[in-house]
Amino acid sequence: MSFSCKAKLLPALLLPIFLALLTGCVADRAYRTAKASDLSDLQRTDKSIGAMIENTLIVEKCDGEEGVSANMQRTSLGFVEIDEQGSFWDRGQVNEAFKLVSGNGATDTAPTYVVIYVHGWRHDLRWGDDNVCKFKLALKNLRNTLDDPGRDEKGVRLVGIAVGWRGQAIDQYPLDLLTVLDRKSVSEEIGRGALVELLIGIEAKTKGLTADERKQSPNKLLLVGHSFGASVIHNALGPVLIERLTKDLYQREQIPIGKQIPAKDIYLQGFGDLVVLINPAIEAMRFLPLLELAHRATTDQSSVSSGGLEKNWPASYKLDQNQPPRLVIISSLGDFPTRRAFPVAQRIKTILEKHRPVETLSADGKSITLNQRDLDTTTIGNEVLLATHQTMIRTKPNDRSCPALTEGWLKQALDNSGQFSTGRGWKKEFQGSNILLQHNARYAATLPIWIMDVSTDIIANHSIVVGNGTLICLFDQLIGVSARKKTTTQSNAPPAVK
Prior knowledge:
Blueprint: H1 3-24, E1 32-34, H2 41-44, E2 50-51, E3 53-54, E4 75-81, H3 91-102, E5 112-118, H4 130-146, E6 157-164, H5 180-191, H6 195-207, H7 211-216, E7 220-226, H8 228-253, E8 274-278, H9 284-296, E9 303-304, E10 310-311, E11 327-332, H10 336-349, E12 357-361, E13 367-371, H11 372-377, E14 393-394, H12 409-415, E15 427-430, E16 435-438, E17 449-454, H13 470-482
């Protein structure tokens, strides 16, 4: 074929793609802008409009999934949408969300359980989006868990807040796959904008304004991000988590060996009660500063008393042996996009960047060399050297019930590990979800950051958010302990060397 023929053929080949991009481009707009009282039942079926708040979880069938039963009592759902520059589309959505989590003030004495969800790539908050349906289904499963006869939480108010952004720029497959790098950049920009105000505002109204109020609040706050939604959360809260963790750890440096940690300061802080990132599309390099901060503060070190006697008390004992996790990162073994596609895209994106080897320490103080290029092209959930636990597995199908964890479950697991001085390598099977977790001994046993793979029978692939309810039970169990008032005055600091 001659050059002139090729030149004539090229526009003909590109024209269908150009037209497809034009016709398939998803509008940059908000979808949940009306008051619930303004919408009739007929209008609720229109995909172009939706209420800011659903006071009951309306049945909506998506992707063949079972819909949520109507008239769910004590369950409300609010929507907040953010534009591509990180600004709120409608301040009214934010105000309505704040009203939901605040309850009815002095007239509402029931504890509040707030779950915030940020969706990922190729999704938004339009009516019928399958991620909206999955979030509703998760709230339904959580409501059923709280209403279990074996639990004493039937009176708890359950509030869901769905955070939406333009995760889908083109709605025609497979052209939408071309938007991966663009949507990744947008997810990073959104996290640095108004979302910070929303998250901190919800935390303040749910848990309290000060650190002491947050630690004593009977309310619960869970934040979940999926895929690029995890990237949104990381960009919004990364600096907040580093600040809180730094203050808590530096405060512990001022406590002499053998001195008791004040009961109110016994747990390290996070955001709310628990942050969960599911199949996060975040390069491990961006997460390393937070992990390194927590890890180096808990690496085994020798301490010398004023009398000159040396005793190898692990610095990890400056963390309480019941320290709850504050950040859990899980990645499915069946997640093709983050395990296979993400590294290819990142290698193209970072081809001109400079990388070098960096040194870190294992929990026993031995040096480990990490390659920055590997960290920059691998997602945080898939980097083997950063995993804190072995692959999460399920020993049998989850039960109908989800019993609350007993106080001190982690300390008991540490005691049963056979590692008296460190507790590393502990394992625990959680009743209800029947999930088995085993610490891999690379990091301190009580590190408040958990990173691990998840078997495909729990999360089958990238698009599954929380699976069949197994993880709902586990997350609820983990924050159930951390949200209780701490009444003990016991400390895990080692006795003074005499």
